[in-house]
Recover the amino acids of this structure.
């Protein structure tokens, strides 16, 4: 019994000695920081040691690389949530377009899902009609008609979305508050 435990330990130590430099390079390439790479590798090797008997007959290096990647991603997620700063953040200037964004958001919420998707893909993602049709699995004609109907509906529910001051003056002179909203073909 004692020799089996020793064989496991010896196999683990042999694996670490023969692979640690290659695994450290992989950890460095994953995270980009030498000290963090060392910490990641140390934690991964500890996890490997705890599971050595079940992993040793397979590919322990692949197991360690998977641990390195998962732990690096977890570290990025934790770090992204927390931003340390020596001084409090500066005050952000008031968002002049905030009311317009809220109006657009509310107006988009009133549209059916397909029309909303067409507008987002066409104008937010800046896709062509053909690319939008491919993304949605519909014809180009459907994209054009859905876009036309969606823009007309937006003009009805949110006349504030017609554009800047010039277009509003022009729209009120012509009597059409949606004069500047066009379907790009």
């Amino acid at each position: 019994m004692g020799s089996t435990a020793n064989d496991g330990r010896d196999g683990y130590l042999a694996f670490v000695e023969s692979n640690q430099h290659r695994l450290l390079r992989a950890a460095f390439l994953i995270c980009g920081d030498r000290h963090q790479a060392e910490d990641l590798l140390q934690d991964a090797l500890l996890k490997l040691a705890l599971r050595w008997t079940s992993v040793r007959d397979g590919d322990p290096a692949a197991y360690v690389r998977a641990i390195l990647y998962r732990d690096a991603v977890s570290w990025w997620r934790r770090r992204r949530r927390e931003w340390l700063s020596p001084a409090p953040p500066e005050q952000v200037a008031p968002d002049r377009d905030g009311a317009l964004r809220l109006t657009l958001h509310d107006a988009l919420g009133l549209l059916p899902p397909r029309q909303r998707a067409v507008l987002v893909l066409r104008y937010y993602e800046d896709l062509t009609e053909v690319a939008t049709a491919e993304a949605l699995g519909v014809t180009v004609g459907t994209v054009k008609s859905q876009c036309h109907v969606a823009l007309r509906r937006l003009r009805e529910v949110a006349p504030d979305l017609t554009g800047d001051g010039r277009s509003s003056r022009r729209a009120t002179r012509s009597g059409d508050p949606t004069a500047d909203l066009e379907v790009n073909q």
Notes: The radius of gyration is 29 Å.
